[in-house]
Amino acid sequence: MAIKKFKDKLFSRATFRGITAIVIFVIIWEVGARSEQLFGYRFPFLGLVPPPSDVLASWGGLIGDPSYWQSWYMSFLRVFGGFAAAMIIGIPLGLFMAVNRTFYGMSFPTFEILRPIPPLAWVPASIIFWPTQELSIAFVTFLGAFYTIVINVLGGARSINKQFLQAAQSMGASQWDIFRRIVLPATLPSIVVGSAVGMGITWEVVVAAEMISGGGSSGGGAGGGLGFFIWSSYVGGSYEQIVVGMISIGIAGYFSSELLRQLGGLLTPWLKTR
Amino acid sequence: MSTQVKEQSAFSGRDVREQSASEIVATGICKTYGAGPFAKDVVRDCSFTIESNKLTVMIGPSGCGKSTLIQLIAGFETPDQGTITMDGRPITGPGMDRLVLFQESALFPWMTTYDNIMYGPRARGEDTKESAELAEFLLNKVGLEAFRDKYPQQLSGGMQRRAELARAMINKPEVMILDEPFRGLDNMSKELMWEYYAGLYEEDRNTNFFVTTDIDEAIFLADRLLIMTNLPTSTRAVIEIDIPRPRRIEDVVNSSRANEIKKEVMTLLHEEAMKSFSGGSKAAADFLDAYSKRAG
Question: B106 and A181: CB-CB below 8 Å?
């Protein structure tokens, strides 16, 4: 039964469309990149990009290279470390801001002033006040997800239908029970959305942070990671490897988001019924 | 199977909701929202009685502050002036003795039908065998045993209302307060819900307070009918509906007594609706007056 379902999904029209789109994209890219050899005229932009066949060849050489996988590992570690810290601190903070009016009044203005500062603007400062380079990258990554998670949790918890609270109250529920069984599940969809958006920002931030701090002469490449992989490929003049690095990040980001979507779906089963 | 049925019938009318005598009296209550130039009188000098063991229906033009009265009776808000008492004791806050069924479904979307019904007992730490049995019995009573593990989104409007009735009844409230509970249902389900709800009421005849804007619904259900004025709300008239119970839709439609009452109620409500429609403007009121004379 499960196998048949999987087969149906594998050979569905959606899968076919997806594959067709990727194939067409690769063909255009290949033709564009080889336009000078093929037509004697270099296409703008595409003509400067290494063709996918070369990228694939370069990738093939890297698959067996442990330092390439080390880059994956380093970036994943930073993303999930920073992301986990943002969830652990951000979710309770957002919830507490939502339920406690005094705390909200005191913390929200500060929060709103800090929030527009882009995480990358924190890079120099965090290099100064964190003892190791690793911690400063992790901190910047954390900031990327943190604000988004807090603002989503806060918004979700503050927009709970008042009648849910009144109904629970009149059935004799305690404050703690209302928090645990009404406020928390009612906020869960916002937590899931905030996390998914936060995860995307985390990948954007980690790559840039790795390029800046890991690629610097002071780091000496010790930082590693996919961002640094791209940067060192650029410095070394290996353009195929730049593209390999870029696609690697695309794949890594996709799997991270998919993982969150699956987890979020398990946590909020009632939303699937709509 | 047969023993189970026996058990269930033993529950009904005895364990589910014990007969109680609870009367709610509102005396001279006023409620104003906002302050200064934005102040809006919603309720002014409003008095009425929700008599014990009767189904009191409150009807009035829409937007007339009936929901505010419910918030006050339920204890979610307090009146600016006047008192509301239940069995002589003033109402100070929300309590299990007065349960509210809200206009829109307030079923918790993240809980299945069964978990929704069990919410009250579990919240009070009464997750006992008796509670579970009672939940089971109520699931059957509202005809949702096949939907026990479904989420509210998967139920139809009528099912949601029945699930909500069960969730309220498991707490054995002395007074049940219903705020336009069947609004938004299609006519067919609405009439089915009337008969269904009237049947539930007729079983134990506890104190019920039902708010609506639908005249047919009001006359079909009510023992006593409170007709409210336009804003600021006060009681315009009280009519005893002496149509015998149990009532059936066909009987009420064909009953000349029901039609007499309907005419009376319509005349009163029409006046109030006119006031609310003209919104206090003299020109609009004159126009409506002239128009209704011509139409009449």
Answer: no
* Pick among 3.30.310.50, 3.40.50.300, 3.40.50.1820, 3.90.1310.10: CATH of B5-97+175-248: 3.40.50.300
Distance from CA of B256 to the nearest CA of A (A): 40
In angstroms, the separation between the Cα of residue B242 and the nearest Cα of chain A is 33
Q: What is the pLDDT of residue B207?
A: 85
What is the per-residue pLDDT for A90? 93
Within 13 Å of residue B243, how many CA atoms lie on the same side as its CB?
28
Is B99 in contact with A268 (Cβ distance < 8 A)? no
Q: DSSP 3-state assignment of A242?
A: helix
pLDDT tens per residue, range A104-125? 999 999 999 999 998 888 888 8
CB–CB of A50/A241 below 8 Å? no
Which residue type does A234 have?
Y
Residue B270 Cα, gap to closest chain A Cα (Å): 31
CA distance B66 to B211: 7
**In percent, how much of chain A has pLDDT > 90?**
19
Q: Is B21 on the interface with A (CB under 8 A)?
A: no
**pLDDT attached to residue A84:** 93
User: Which residues of chain B neighbour A268 with C-beta distances below 8 Å?
Assistant: 110
pLDDT of the residue at A151: 93
Mean pLDDT across the stretch B76-105? Answer: 81
Mutant choice from A160, A161, A170 vs B, greatest count of B C-beta within 10 A: A170
Give the pLDDT mean for B74-85: 83
**Whole-angstrom distance, CA of residue B105 vs CA of residue A167:** 10
Q: How confident is the model at residue B276 (pLDDT cuts 50, 70, 90)?
A: low
Residue A105 in 3-state DSSP? helix
Domain ranges of chain B: 5-97+175-248, 105-172
In whole angstroms, give the CA distance from residue B120 to residue B107.
12
Q: Is B76 on the interface with A (CB under 8 A)?
A: yes
> Mutation test of the interface with chain A: which of B71, B101, B102, B110, choosing the one with the most A Cβ atoms within 10 A?
B110
